[in-house]
């Protein structure tokens, strides 16, 4: 027979366990992580709640979370600690500490947040680690040598001219330019790095770029919403189904590219757009001279050097990215077919989303800084006069002011606002000799670093003079890292800068750019790459002499 006393005692037992089990776990966790807690106590940061840490302070939409993080960063100086539940996150904003982390060959493992991209990018260069990353990086970095990039100039120009033509449909309208820039960057990647033919592949840029934009949003949703971190929960929601659909769309494309390239190889046709270089050393001498004379190392305007800057890459014939990987795969060296596909997916994402973002931002900045735009155009008129000829490699050296504008865009709106590493060993910083414990997630806050008032006075203002030589020489290399730095820096940075110079100069030679949206009204969103939530709106007016 049911008795009231049984029922209340059951309830008391449940309540007892509900309160005691988490408490016991918390006590156990604190004992097991004594060293972590001791070291964390010495790091400045907002006080948090037991178990939850600072979780409740960072809720809301991705834009709101980004704004809260930036706001919080102004309350602290160089190193900031935040607890998200039991996980310790440390944000670095001082170049001296960033240098310690990024130059290390030990702390190169990405944080677990990157794992949410695994179903999409597999073991591609962005995510992989250890020996696999090391051997793949060595091969891929060589395929971005400047001499190989030179051979892409024809395609950069051809596609830039097509873009200018597409823009004719929009003249007089205020429109979001990002989708056009996505089309340009994605199609040009296929034509160059992949050495394929976008038309024969039936490539549809809005579908592909739409899928990657959506995938970024979904991955970021998993970063910001605790309940979506579990694969089981996420995969059973509508977001999980959407994620699966977009991943298979992207993978279908890379499978198609491989099939296309393999059929080309079987026909014994070399890749149609890729020239091969026999003696790379001979050409390198002039590049070294250029780099010495200007201090500019394509993208690392402060002269930072790494494996991409190795002048000597051997006498063997070198060819572009996908030809090289397929050759290796056919010879059963280093890459399996799955590896090749992972690397295509990685490069298609890294190579198109970032470059589309920065070029769209550049156009918006030109539209809101008409004096700067006029100076760029003046420089281009000096180089090209009235001619509508293609941009040559040598012309890109002459675009010194335009390059400073690109650098300043990368500073103020860094397309990758943060990067993150997982510490497998303790790391001692320069700032106050702080030691970061094992398992800390270290965030390099590029967005905040690039807006430090001590490095860039009046830092919210778009000022290309931040990159005149005296100023860059006076700053640490690590105060400007849009492409990261050190062993895991961006392999595509020289490619990106060269392509940006060609396409942006071609647009400026053909159109005057305006907008009705002042910079102060822009809303930013940092889902993997930086975007404007309100759209990249510009208006184009054809230039008379174009
Ligand atoms: C303006 C354009 C670009 C920017 C701002 C940019 C920025 C970055 C950053 C910050 C990283 C480090 C990411 C991290 O540590 O989490 C990175 C890595 C990488 N980027 Fe880029 N990137 C750009 C263009 C490109 C292009 C055009 C390609 C290839 C075609 C590319 C391929 C890669 C790859 C493969 C990695 C991973 C490298 C490794 O871990 O060894 N990127 N990029």
Q: Could you describe the 3D structure shown?
A:
Helix 15 crosses helix 18. About 6% of the residues have low confidence. It contains 21 helices and 11 strands. It has a single domain, classed as Cytochrome P450 (Cytochrome p450, Orthogonal Bundle). The chain is 51% helix and 8% strand. The chain is globular, with a radius of gyration of 25 Å. It has 546 residues and is of the alpha+beta class. It has a 4-stranded mixed beta sheet with strand order 1-2-7-4. Protoporphyrin IX containing FE (HEM) binds next to helix 15 and helix 21.
Structural class: alpha+beta
The CATH topology corresponds to Cytochrome p450
Give the C-level CATH assignment.
Mainly Alpha
Main beta sheet: 4 strands, mixed
Mean pLDDT, nearest integer?
A: 88
CATH architecture: Orthogonal Bundle
Please give the radius of gyration in angstroms. Answer: 25 Å
Q: Helical element count?
A: 21
Strand content: 5-15%
Helix content: 40-55%
Detail the poorly predicted runs. Answer: 272-304
Order of adjacent strands in the largest pleated sheet? 1-2-7-4
**Ligands present:** protoporphyrin IX containing FE
Number of strands: 11
InterPro entries: Cyt_P450, Cyt_P450_CS, Cyt_P450_E_grp-I, Cyt_P450_sf, Cytochrome_P450_Monoox
Family: Belongs to the cytochrome P450 family.
Cofactor: heme
Protein name: Cytochrome P450
Main attributes of the structure:
Cytochrome p450; single chain; alpha+beta
Give a brief description.
This protein is an alpha+beta fold.
Secondary structure elements and pairings:
Layout: H1 4-32, H2 34-41, H3 62-73, E1 79-84, E2 87-92, H4 95-103, H5 118-121, H6 130-142, H7 146-150, H8 153-166, E3 174-176, H9 178-191, H10 205-224, H11 231-235, H12 238-266, H13 280-294, H14 321-330, H15 337-368, H16 370-384, H17 393-398, H18 400-412, E4 419-422, E5 427-428, E6 435-436, E7 441-444, H19 446-449, H20 469-474, H21 493-510, E8 511-514, E9 524-527, E10 529-532, E11 537-542
Parallel strand pairs: 2-7
Antiparallel strand pairs: 1-2, 3-11, 4-7, 5-6, 8-11, 9-10
Helix pairs in contact: 8-9, 8-21, 9-15, 10-12, 12-15, 15-18, 16-18
The structure holds protoporphyrin IX containing FE.
Binding site for heme: 490
Protein name: Cytochrome P450
Pfam families: p450 (PF00067)
